[in-house]
Amino acid sequence: MAPRSRPTARQVRLGTELRRLREAAGLKAREVAGLLSSTSAQMSQVEAGFAGASEERVRRLAAHYACADDSLVNALVAMSTDRTQGWWEEFRGVLPPVFLDVAELEHHATFLHEVVITHVPGLLQTPDYARAVFGYMVPELPESELTPRVEHRLRRRAVIECDPPVPYRTVVHEAALRIRVGDREVTRAQLRRILDESEREHVAVRIIPFDADHFAGASAAMMHVGGPLPRLDTVLRDSPSGTAFLDAESQLERFRTLFRKVERASLDPTRSRDLIHRLAKEL
Description:
By secondary structure, the chain is α/β, with parallel strands linked by helices. 49% of the residues lie in helices and 11% in strands. A hairpin with an 8-residue loop joins strand 4 and strand 5 (234-239).
């Protein structure tokens, strides 16, 4: 099978976990290659996500690495055998691959925890709000690129609207609610959208008000995507250079702690809804 030209983030993660198991066993790639009648180069392709691994191969590798964690092995097998062709595949070749990677991660998530400071969370955005966000990019996007970005963002909402939905908790700073990304009507409609979504049993929206004391977390924006096991979680962080996918255990624990810290600084869901109601009435 020819190597993949561009593995997805999920495929890369499978390879990363196989490499971590090998390294934990104290083995070199060349030592393992013989077990599979393979080569060091082919092993490197598997561990980088450029080549797939069958269920039999994953289980043989796990046994050779003396991995006794059946839950982990089964989760890796599920990743290796998954052939899901989700809605995001419609955008392949149309949008940058990272858009598809984010949608795929969300689709497989067991939970989503998000912190946003300056923008409304993507999963809660209205069409007009999303268009205003993408329309502000420099250089300005042509309509042929702007429209699919907006459509993709709206279709991501499937994860909190499907049956069963993915549990979603988000902490939003009041600044994100007050900044008029669009005009007054766009902002009012966006606040109403957040209120509507917050009524869902599996959605929790908490607001950090401007007058919250001891909040120095302006750089805490992130999305924590739950995996089938805690060690298979992923944290997404956006920066001017792109979206980073973080999955080292030390990083994951750091952002679990950060989310709890930020959440403690926020209002409870009921008081948060009251604040959003008040802001909408002020417009």
